[in-house]
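Researcher: Please predict.
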Amino acid sequence: AGLEVDHVDHEKSARAALADLAAHLGLAITGSSDFHGENKQVQLGAYTTSQPAYEQLMAAVRSGTAVLSG
């Protein structure tokens, strides 16, 4: 499982607090640019999930321990 830490709407202090929470809970730190079309001010890919976090999530999926929700 993961926690979206790196997001355009999260201030630096909130990101730090969320990163600490994710580490405490053993969650992968994810990111998202939340790009929903050309009329947005955020660039696609401005905030992303790191390769190690992606690999952590994929390992959970492969092992069957991932809980998927949306």
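Model: The chain has one domain: 2-63.
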